[in-house]
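Pasting as-is:
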Amino acid sequence: MKRVISLYIFVALLCGCMKESHFDDGFHQRLVVEGRIEQGREAVVMLSLTTPYADNYDEDTFRDMIIRWAKVTVICDEHSEVLTGRANKDYPTQFIYTGLDIIGEVGKSYTLEVEYSGQKWSATTTIPEPIELTDIKVNSVGDDQYTISATLAKSSTPSSVDCSLDGSSYFAPTLIGTYAPSTVEREITINRPLDNFIRKGYSTVYKADEVVRLRVNTMCDFGYDYWRAWENNVINSLNPVFPATSNLPSNISNGGIGIWAGYGTTYYNLGEIK
């Protein structure tokens, strides 16, 4: 059995494989959504189906979990846009739904609708004001390894930091990178992301010559609850393919799983780590 598993597939396993699924022959697949819209950018949505826990997984199993033929619509005010599905090898699912016409704006609300296999799911979110990082520093810790530290601005909304490595268009959550609101600035350490995959031997430090970009997100309270629960599940799961004992929270209707969230975002290009 492969010991490397896509982070997004891991989320589908975490969300969909409750403890009783080990013994329940009546397992029912559920929709898993990871969707976002941020100010100044179009929506991006990944879709998959949950799968019951089993002893053996292969690439065909993972491919079968990805949904490529759904109708995905984003609605804002009186406008709606059907997103286009397309391959993108940077993303964990290697397939995303994205648009061109509806671009996120701070303060506006956006509804996601997903239609698939005769069923319909929806969720609504709002984009908060973005915040910034200051005093970003790359610190050598020897042997071509580096840490990144920064000052996170105060914010009335929760926030998180994501990271893209070596030009990838996908920003993965940094480990222990979700923060509650704060009335003061905070010194933070930006750990290496899980890099789309959960691997044995993961290290929090960065390697020399990696190209690093950071994304700071502000989000609603539900976004904070979701990503903190996700972090806890990842950290506590010693075996990457072992199911969680409880589902992650969800704002997807009709029994769907996952998150549709609006983010206020700020990007930073750190270039090659040296």
